[in-house]
Specification:
279 residues; alpha/beta; 434 Repressor (Amino-terminal Domain); 2 domains; six-stranded mixed sheet; 13% strand; disordered N terminus; Lambda_DNA-bd_dom_sf; DUF5753; DNA binding; DNA-binding
Length: 279
């Protein structure tokens, strides 16, 4: 068990290791501990291995069982606060080291597939960013896209809601360039691109960005984002539930070949493209 940032020990890691140390010091098995604190053995195991952070109530119950005052509860609070502070920073490192990424975006072209002009347009819609911050944001997004290139590009599957193809930048040239880029990206061997059509109707991930990431350690994590916040999700049960939502949506989406044809049709319909593009 280790923190995402190499060489940095997180409060979450310290909390999990302290839970395991306390149980070993008392000489109890997980079964014995479960009997004493009225929590399931599997739940306690996930706390000790870092698979779950758990609740403050669980930390307080374990403090009572071990006779550690507020020690474990205080460690839990530090881990929880650390998670809130570092959710964006952690995600950048996780994405850069992922071996596989799956994403759904319900409102915009995913950052990993954006052109510079499209990224610039989307960042400017925030309104609160300075020109310098917008420029820095565009550079950061272009740098993130390096995971899709090189000798060992990550395998990336993107689901785009059909809404993305309707809510487009005001500048026609920006959208035409973005469509061309999506068509090119969809034909790369390491990229799968599927459109979730309107006919799917209501689903579990409206107006949401969901990313599922596979890490070299074998751990899977998720990242959920809306227009005003984002959260790195590490709890095993929560990641599994989000993965189920993603799989259900993927099964309802157009196939990669059907999605590619739809993108080509959108480009052919675009005012800046009087002549159909070559396939």
């Amino acid at each position: 068990m280790s923190s995402f940032a190499e060489g940095i020990i997180s409060a979450r890691v310290v909390y999990a290791e302290e839970l395991a140390r306390q149980r070993r010091m008392h000489g109890w098995s997980l079964v014995e501990l479960a009997d004493r604190c009225n929590y399931e053995q599997s739940y306690l195991h996930r706390l000790e291995t870092g698979g779950r952070l758990g609740t403050l109530e669980a930390a307080q119950a374990l403090d009572k069982v071990y006779g550690t005052g507020k020690h474990l509860a205080n460690l839990w609070r530090l881990a929880k606060e650390e998670s809130k502070r570092s959710r964006y920073g952690n995600f950048a490192g996780v994405e850069a080291n992922a071996t596989k990424i799956q994403e759904f975006n319900g409102s915009a072209v995913p950052g990993l597939l954006q052109t510079k002009a499209y990224a610039d347009a989307t960042l400017r819609t925030a309104g609160s960013l300075t020109a310098e911050q917008v420029t820095e944001g565009v550079v950061a997004r272009m740098n993130r896209q390096l995971v899709l290139a090189g000798s060992k590009p990550v395998h990336y599957r993107a689901l785009l809601d059909e809404t993305v193809l309707q809510r487009v930048p005001l500048e026609p040239g920006v959208w035409a360039e973005q469509l061309e880029h999506l068509i090119e990206a969809a034909q790369r061997p390491n990229i799968s691109l599927q459109i979730v059509p309107f006919r799917v109707g209501m689903h579990a991930l409206p107006n949401t960005v969901l990313k599922l990431l596979w890490l070299p350690s074998g751990q899977n994590v998720a990242y959920v984002e809306n227009s005003w916040s984002g959260q790195l999700v590490e709890e095993i049960e929560d990641v599994e539930q989000l993965a189920l939502f993603y799989d259900q949506l993927r099964d309802s989406a157009l196939s990669p070949s059907e999605s590619l044809e739809l993108l080509r049709a959108k480009l052919e319909e675009h005012p800046s493209c009087p002549v159909p593009p070559q396939t």
